[in-house]
Design a protein that fits this description.
Layout: E1 4-9, H1 15-24, E2 38-46, H2 50-60, H3 73-86, E3 97-106, E4 116-128, E5 131-142, E6 145-157, E7 181-188, H4 193-200, H5 210-215, H6 225-233, E8 244-251, E9 259-267, E10 274-277, E11 280-283, E12 286-294, E13 302-309, H7 311-318
Parallel strand pairs: 1-2
Antiparallel strand pairs: 2-4, 3-6, 3-8, 4-5, 5-6, 7-9, 8-13, 9-12, 10-11, 12-13
Helix pairs in contact: 1-3, 2-4, 2-6
């Protein structure tokens, strides 16, 4: 086991400070034989900034409510995730990392007036054929109980050694063509990435700096996943839903600004419409597979599974 590092924040770390530390402290390099660092970041007694929440909702097209959107806790954990990635003990640079998967579970809807405690920690890593993946687990608590959790997978391109043979990567089954209904489409305008970065916690310049994105091999800057997924969920979830929710997202390709975004979805009716919360498996009340496409690209840029569960059962299990 690698060195244990505990980062404690009294307020949300700023994007600029994180970028500064990432540049200043860049000293480590991944080595397969070297113990992987155990880095934890936490922020206690977090309250919701209403102005930021309102702007987040406005940009995503989410209606304001007395409950947080299921996607919003990502805006609270992202600054902590980025500080972990920017730490000098992290295996690779913050500036070359990409999101690849998000697995969130909301045990119950979170009120906008609740005081929250946030915990993030490196949960695992694996060598892939074309890169290195690292998981960071996050828990958001209210009153000492978990109300929202997530495992975020980050991806570093490159050759890092022999791939882990026992790892089975996630796979989203194709939506059957007759069932692949076009649920919605909207235009993603140019120039909103920087404004959204101020309220979503994801300040990676790849989302608002065209030259930087091109330097990393992309066509241009592209939207934060939260922006696209948040907009999509307005068409997939009932407004003000108070249900427990499971959301599994695979990020396949960029969603570029200046394009039409197409959302396709279909109901899931098979035995896989379940999720594990606590020590039990719960059958979903409603399950959907969805794909998000961009412009003329025929392949999905984002694939996801959305499941809703009975509120009471999930909350009781989460609080055991």
């Amino acid at each position: 086991m690698g060195k244990s590092i505990d980062l404690i924040f009294k307020k949300q770390p700023s994007i600029m400070a994180t970028a500064f530390f990432a540049l200043l402290e860049r000293s480590s390099k991944f080595a397969a034989a070297k113990p992987f660092p155990q880095i934890t970041a936490r922020q206690i007694a977090v309250t919701i900034d209403r102005k930021k929440l309102d702007e987040f909702n406005r940009i995503c097209g989410i209606r304001n409510s007395d409950k947080l959107p299921v996607i919003y806790p990502f805006a609270l954990i992202y600054p902590l995730l980025q500080r972990i990635l920017a730490h000098k003990a992290s295996p690779l640079s913050l500036f070359v990392v990409l999101n690849s998967r998000m697995q969130a579970q909301q045990h119950r809807a979170i009120g906008i007036d609740e005081t929250l405690d946030i915990y993030c920690s490196i949960a695992g890593h694996r060598i892939r054929e074309k890169g290195l993946e690292m998981d960071i687990a996050s828990i958001v608590k209210s009153g000492g109980f978990a109300v929202w959790e997530n495992i975020q997978t980050f991806y570093y391109r490159g050759k890092f050694g022999t791939p882990d043979e026992n790892y089975q990567p996630p796979h989203c089954e194709d939506i059957p063509v007759p069932d692949a209904d076009e649920t919605a489409r909207w235009f993603l305008p140019v120039g909103i990435g920087h404004s959204f970065s101020k309220v979503c916690g994801d300040g990676n310049p790849i989302h608002y700096w065209k030259a930087y994105a091109r330097l990393l091999g992309f066509k241009r800057d592209f939207a934060q996943p939260l922006l696209v997924i948040g907009s999509a969920l307005t068409h997939l979830l009932q407004p003000d839903s108070d249900h427990a929710i499971s959301l599994d997202i695979s990020l396949k390709a960029p969603v570029y600004y200046g394009n039409t975004v197409i959302l396709k979805s279909a109901a899931i009716t098979d035995i896989n419409s379940k999720a594990n919360f606590g020590n039990i498996s719960q059958q979903a009340n409603d399950s959907k597979r969805f794909d998000i496409l961009c412009g003329n690209n025929p392949l999905p840029c984002i694939c996801g599974t959305l499941k809703t569960f009975s509120k009471q059962g999930m909350v009781n299990e989460a609080n055991k």
